[in-house]
Amino acid sequence: MDAMEKLSDHLTKRRPELRQIKKSGQKIIGYTPGGYLPAEMLYAAGALPLCLARGGDPEPVAESTAYLPRFIDTFCRCQIGYRVMGEEVLYQLPDLIVVPVNDVNERAIADCWNYYTDMETFRYGVPHNKRQDALDYYAGSLRLLRKKLESFMGTTIDDDKLKEEIKTQNRMRELFRNISYLRQPGKTPAISAQDFIKLHHASFYADRATFMVILEELYEELKQKQVEENDKPKVMLTASTLAMGDYKIFNIMDEIGGEFIFEEAAEGLMPYAHDVSLEGDPILALADTFFMKRIPPAWFRPARERVDYLLNTVKEKKVEGLLWYQLLYRDGYDIQSYSFEKELVRTTGLPFLKLESDYDTSERGQFKTRMETFVEIMKQRRQ
Amino acid sequence: MYTNLFKICGYTDEEIEKQRPRIEKALDRMGVLNEAAIKHAEKTVQSNYDVELLSVQKLLWVFMASCVDAVLARDEHDYVINCNWPFPVQMTLAMIDAAKADGGKTWVGMPVQIFWMVGGTVFDILTPVLERGELIGQPVGKAHCSQYQIYTGAIDMGILPKPDLGIGSGWFCDQAAETEEMMSELYGFEIAYLDGLNDWAWGAWPELDERAVRYSSNTIRLALQRVREICGFETTEEQLKAGFKYVAKWLYGMQNITRMIGAADPQPISQANVNLPYGLWAIATAYPDQAVDGLSTMVREIKRKIDAGEGVVPKGAPRVYLALRTNVDTAPIRMVEELGLCLPTVFVDWLCPQELTKSTYTDMVDRIAEGLYRRPQLCDAYAAIEYWKAVCRDFDIDAVIMSFAYNCRPWGVNPIMAKLDIQKEFGIPAIVLETDGYDTRNYSAEQLRTRLESFAEVVKMNKEMKAAA
Q1: A125–B198 C-beta distance less than 8 A
Q2: B185 contacts in chain A (CB < 8 Å)
Q3: Torsion-angle region of residue B295: left (phi > 0), alpha (psi -120 to 50) or beta?
């Protein structure tokens, strides 16, 4: 059995296992997947972290209309749907939900959990810029989180314990980086983007120890793997949310003969680009990695850092086009795409395709047609 | 050609004559310097407001004069500073004062809010401006804020000048700041953001989050500093205090109006007219004395009507709360009143007791940030719901129309929750209506009428049954 099969096997059993873990009295703390919550803090408190990142299904979106107006971002809207429909086990497990509030759409998730469920919710703010006062605020938010976790769990999160957890999470981040770096610029990747993203999603609810062993094995396997170079156009993906279960565009890309070789998303990926320093105050170190070093989402202002990152990355990764995937009504992404497309085309000449999803099955045909044209344009540009 | 229109809006012949070149330049830029547009404006303003009220004329004067100033700001000043909603009025007023004291080389104001008020309720010219905005990063059908579509459209069409500095609002919603960020990229002007966090713990309001207040007040300080660096003038503590004094005066007047209308039976004037003082509560003007005069006049006119027993709806009409002002079009308000329902208070006109808590902050800038966060509708859903429940209690409301703006994410979530809470707690009819604050195309007046007619029947029947019981 190879590592990916082992992971699949583990995940199949994981939901019932999590039910048992909860029954045994272990507290489970859920959180939203915006990348502003360091899971090591939850581990250090003795909680079992569970990132609620499910998306891609039309039914919870339809269900959510009873609770929210239709013009909230699709992913944020459907979160209450998953909870009230009761079919997704993960959404029934948490004893506490933590929501780092970064934009109004995310705040809607917290408001819905508060109003429509009996779940306790803890929210903290993430500022929209990287000035010193913003960093201080975010670090302050993490300190509040630490207090909340300590009182909720009845434990103490001392610096040594937190550093131990940071160390473990650093190893996980390192493994993610190692696996990601096996994807050479402009080359056929050793691991598909879809599998790489599924690793992120697995990290949200898999047993950490098991997952780390699998990641180690996978890295070794991929290092040995002989990758046969293909001539598929190489694409970079940037997204507002890459939710667990939302794999439509990856499947279509496979079908039409293109290939994602690198990805960036505001929500749905485990932040892995930077380790957390083990020196000094661990809260400040976490704030430095999770806030300052992180590529900001499109709702940050000023937006230049993210725009420059994307422009540099498309060159660095030697891609032939950029696919901008956003969910319906994610205002920040919709607005930023307007000026970004112009700048991308002006500075790199690369083709740009924007797709917008409401997790509706009927989108598939339209997506496929547009992606086929996109791939065709990239092929023609080679001639 | 436009004399009659400007006289409707409170201008004297002498003022029109004196201002003629400026008026014509501004009207021309707005695309309304022609007979047909002026005739249409005369009809529009009269359908939106009861222009026979002296207070309405006086308040319209303030808007018209401010609009001419905003459109000509670049022609008449070296620097232009735009402040955009949602924005602390005290801060803008203080900067306006500081700019005047500096010799007037800088224009400071809230141009888009002035423009949609005049462009919507006087000239009815917003549709092409919205359409232009839709072409610039805020496409139709994607629930982009129509206020910011107007802003983008008005600048792109050359109606409003590009500023040297925009002080953007990023403390309440995201769309405002996101659009300004895009505009700064496209048009090459700088933005200073007032930033904030929407992270109140559920149930915490009216307790203020000290961290959030301090963080936001720091962004206000940074913005004032940037104004100083760009335009060379300092906004002083005294000017900020004067801004507070003006707002306090205005709040007092508005609360008088709200209380008088709320307690009267029949409802003495249409809430459509209150659109004007509400607007000037939230929009800073360079004509504060004229604005206060208009407000005081409205208070006196309402009192006279109450004393005379005059009303715009039948005596004893069911008392209904309407949760949103459609700022650019008073038709939805008129529609409710025409259906025989009394509107004792609308939108956030009334200040609940928690908002009137004495400040514990001594620093003026901290107090600005605190003032923003005292308003329940600017915090979280819990606070908004508490406000609406307080309105129902305090105004003895028989039914609520939870109207909200299609595209306003911070305000879209709360009405659905509030409807459930109000029905449960007060046992009164409640309806949720999707409308818009700035784009009349986002709701159909006829469709609204159909829904409101049947709702009005239910409300009246409910009231009769209660009375019979």
Answers
A1: yes
A2: 303, 339
A3: alpha
ipTM over 0.85: yes
- Is A68 close to B407, i.e. CB distance below 8 A? no
Q: pTM score, two decimals?
A: 0.96
pLDDT tens-digit series, residues B246-299: 999 999 999 999 999 999 999 999 999 999 999 998 899 999 999 999 999 999
CATH fit for domain A1-383, picks 3.40.50.300, 3.40.50.720, 3.40.50.10610, 3.40.50.11900 = 3.40.50.11900
- Residue B202 touches partner A, C-beta closer than 8 Å: yes
Domain boundaries, chain A: 1-383
pLDDT value for B208: 86
* Those residues with Cβ within 8 angstroms of residue B405's Cβ, 6 or more apart along the chain or in another chain: B146, B324, B411, B412, B434, B435, B436, B437, B438, B442
Sign of CA dihedral A331, A336, A342, A344: negative
Q: Which of B195, B419, B422, B432 to mutate to test the interface with A (most CBs of A within 10 A)?
A: B195
Inter-chain touch B413–A72, beta carbons under 8 Å: yes
User: Considering only residues 151 to 190 of chain A, which have any Cβ-Cβ distance to chain B shorter than 8 Å?
Assistant: none
Beta-carbon pairs below 8 A across chains A and B: 137
The DSSP H or E segment spanning A180 is helix A159-181
Q: What percent of chain B has pLDDT over 90?
A: 89
Cβ-defined contact of A140 to B211 (cutoff 8 Å): yes
**DSSP per position, B313-374:** S-TTPPBEEE----TT--HHHHHHHHTT-B-S-BTT-SPPGGGGPPP---SHHHHHHHHHHH
List C-alpha distances in Å: B21 to A73, B24, B65, B164, B307.
48, 5, 13, 25, 44
Percent of chain A with pLDDT over 90: 99
Any B CB within 8 A of A335 CB: yes
Q: Is B77 on the interface with A (CB under 8 A)?
A: no
Burial (0-12, 13-18, 19+ Cβ within 10 Å), B340: middle
For A327, the token pair is 């969910």
Q: Which of A151, A331, A333 to mutate to test the interface with B (most CBs of B within 10 A)?
A: A331
Interchain CB distance below 8 Å, B413 and A129:
no
Q: How far apart are CA B196 and CA B206, in angstroms?
A: 17
Task: Say if the Cβ atoms of A107 and B380 lie within 8 Å.
Answer: yes
Considering only CA atoms, which of B412, B402, B407, B401 is closest in space to residue A68?
Answer: B412
B433 φ, ψ to 5°?
Answer: -125, 130
pLDDT digits (tens, 9 = 90+) for A29-80: 999 999 999 999 999 999 999 999 999 999 999 999 999 999 999 999 999 9
Instruction: State both tokens at B384.
Output: 């908004």
